[in-house]
Specification:
mainly beta, Immunoglobulin-like, 2 domains, seven-stranded antiparallel sheet, five-stranded antiparallel sheet, 19 strands, about 15% helix
């Protein structure tokens, strides 16, 4: 009987030792092996939404930094309309104590020499080639959920140098039009979709300091919302063709918008671009 009890005690001790060993292995390092050596890479940053993406000047690329097994990618966005990011869901981002990602101010240079200041972010990357949550906060104070993937890291010195050139360009920023306070008009061009939809041109432009808002009137009453830089805008009228008041991030270059139409059998989001001509301002 004593021999049996002794055997049970030995077995319990062996199991306990094994469990302690496994726990020690699990707590010895909290950083997963990223499968890539420490260094700096150009990597692709893709999202689940065409309105939330890397600035067009950088071809969907960001700077991926790997150090001590941890990965972070710096991405420059399209504008300053996204004011915070959160590596998780929008619900968690709004909880007390949530650590939001703060923006940097990046200067990007386009192929035509035009430069612009936009927001950039350093985003923690849990794993390559795997989708993860990244919530964004827009200027209207509303959070949106998104999924992103970081992939294809390459040691491309030229691309890394280009991505690292924020704020170092010698090109002068193209002059923004000086609009007087109040309302003016400007010609606007719509592109994208099936080509059947149009918007009224010229459009009313409302200037408030250095912020510009355009009144966009569609050729259809079936547009029920628009999205610009991740922000959703509702129509400002209830009768007639759909009318929206949307921000104008810049002039003389196309910027992306999404408009949702209910004219089809099911609501459908359509991608367009709008371009406002500064030389036509009156």
């Amino acid at each position: 009987m004593k021999k049996l009890k002794k055997s049970k005690l030995i077995l319990i001790a062996v199991i306990a030792a094994a469990m302690l060993s496994m726990a020690a292995c699990g707590s010895g390092s909290q950083t997963a092996d990223p499968g890539i050596a420490d260094g700096t890479y150009a990597a692709t940053f893709t999202t689940d939404n065409s309105m939330f993406h890397v600035n067009e000047a950088y071809e969907d690329k960001g700077i991926l930094t790997v150090k001590d097994g941890e990965m972070t990618i710096h991405v420059s966005l399209q504008s300053k309309k996204i004011v915070n990011l959160y590596p998780g869901t929008s619900e968690d981002a709004q909880k007390e104590g949530a650590e939001l990602l703060e923006p940097t101010t990046d200067t990007v240079t386009y192929s035509d020499g035009y430069t612009d200041e936009v927001y950039g972010f350093d985003v923690p990357v849990p794993a390559l080639d795997e989708e993860f949550d990244l919530a964004l906060l827009g200027t209207k104070g509303k959070w949106y959920d998104h999924k992103v993937i970081v992939s294809d890291p390459v040691e491309d010195e030229d691309m890394v140098a280009k991505l690292s050139a924020n704020g170092e360009s010698s090109s002068e920023k193209a002059a923004e039009p000086e609009l007087a306070e109040g309302e003016q008009t400007a010609a606007v061009t719509l592109e994208g979709g099936t080509g059947r939809a149009t918007v009224d041109s010229p459009a009313v432009i409302k200037a408030n300091g250095d912020e510009y808002t355009a009144v966009i009137k569609w050729s259809s009453p079936h547009y029920d919302y628009m999205i610009i830089d991740g922000q959703r805008y509702e129509p400002v009228n209830t009768d007639g063709n759909s009318v929206f008041e949307i921000p104008v991030p810049y002039f003389d270059k196309p910027f992306d918008v999404i408009a949702d139409t209910t004219a089809m059998s099911e609501p459908h989001e359509i991608e367009y671009t709008l371009t406002f001509d500064s030389s036509s301002i009156k």
